[in-house]
Every structure is written in structure tokens, then in C-alpha cells.
Design goal:
The chain has three helices and eleven strands, in the order αβββββββββββαα. With 258 residues, it is α+β, with helices and mostly antiparallel strands. It has a domain of 169 residues. Strands 1, 2, 3, 4, 5, 6, 7, 8, 9, 10 and 11 form an eleven-stranded antiparallel β-sheet that branches. The longest helix has 22 residues. It is elongated.
Amino acid sequence: MRTLPIPVFLLLSAVFAVAAEKIPKVEAATVPIADIVVVEKAAPKEPPVLKDPLTRRESSVREDTMPGYIEMSNGEVFPGLLYITRDKRLEVYDVEIKRQRTIPIGRIAKIEVNVEKEWMEREWRFKELASDEKMYTVREYPCRIFTYTLTFDDGRELEGPMSGIIFVQKLEAGEDASVGHIPERDAPRFYFHKRDSEPANVGKKLADIHYVKSVKLGDDALAEGQKKAAAIGNSKKNAKTPPAKIKKRDEGQQRAKL
């Protein structure tokens, strides 16, 4: 590194000192205390409260529910408010035009379920891994193939295989369709598909597996379903009550009328 001779260094130092003395000094302006405005910083905002993802949203209330009932093959009836999965429709294959159709539940008046074929299927498994050869056992499970006849609100009909899920929100005593959808209330679900063959039902008979027999929609259908459900409930109570108690109860009701 090149260094300056000592005389030159001293000369430059003297020049800078003289130049610094000639620069005018600027005095700081004084501001009266009364004119000083104190600006307070706003308190930091608290972060928004996050909603619990497990809690139900207000938008979970359904406005597309339909009054009606579902009747099972064993005679059991489920009246209430019917609805399907949100933003979904029932899918029906139109045999005539060979095309899949999507049907909103609000356009349906009735669904009749027809058993096209039923049999007992033998249980089987592959003989070896990565082999197509099947090995059958002596155990069996029930199988059914369904077709569905849909009647629309304008009287038209459509028949064919159908797939979908229908939920039924049960109504409490004294409630009607005006209560609307209640998200907190449990709603049993009913599956609709072309083929019902579940190997998990090994050992069961055809009569042991119940299926949906019919679906009816509308205010009149709801009233009809509630009457059927009440009649079934009364028959079950009478079945549990000994005949002697039923006779005494009937005699008491006749005396009360007199």
C-alpha cells in the first residue's frame, strides 16, 4: 500500500481544518412545548378468532329438504324430511336413450324399488396372490339386483338402475315439515344402487337383508308415513303386552265411553 510523505499529510490536515472553520454553523430551531403534538400509536389489533372447524356452519342448514317417508321391505317406515348429499343428485340410467340422468329430489313424487333378481352367492377368494383362479367355499351370502321406477311431480315416469343416498331427518312429536332442516339432529341414510352383494353378510339369508321398498314425497306422503309408523308402533306395543292386559284395557276403554 502506497503511503503519503509526512509533510504532505500534515499540509492536507491543515487545509481541512481551515475549511471546517469557514463553514457556517446552523443552530437547531427551537419549538415551543405547547406546539408539540404527541401522536400515540394505536394498540395492535388482536388477530381474528378462528372458528372451530368441527363446529357446524350456519350454511349447513339445508333448504332443499322434502317431506315424505321411506318404507323398507320388512314393513318398517321412516317418515320425516328427506334430502340428499349437498350439491348432488340421484343418478338414473335411462335405458331407452342409453344415457345417465341426474335427477334433483325436489322433482320426484315417488320411487318404487323392483327386485329384478335375487340369489345366494358362494363366497370365494383367489387361490394365490397374483392369480385369477378363484377358490369357492361352502359359505354363501345374499345378492340382489334392483331397478327403480321414478314418478315425477308432473306424472312422467323413468325406469332404470339408480344410485344415490337419501337422508331422513326424523320429526319429533307435534312437529311438521315447517321446522326445516336441523343439522344437529341425526338422520339415518339409505343407499340406492343397482346391485346389493356384500360378502360381509356371509351366513345370512335373503330374508335377513332388508332393502328400501318405496319412497314417497310430499306433504300428503308425510302424513301417510306418520300414520303408518304410528300403526306399526302400536302393533309392536300390543305384541309385547300379554293378551289378558289388552282385554282388560279394551274393557276399561268401553266402560269409559259408557
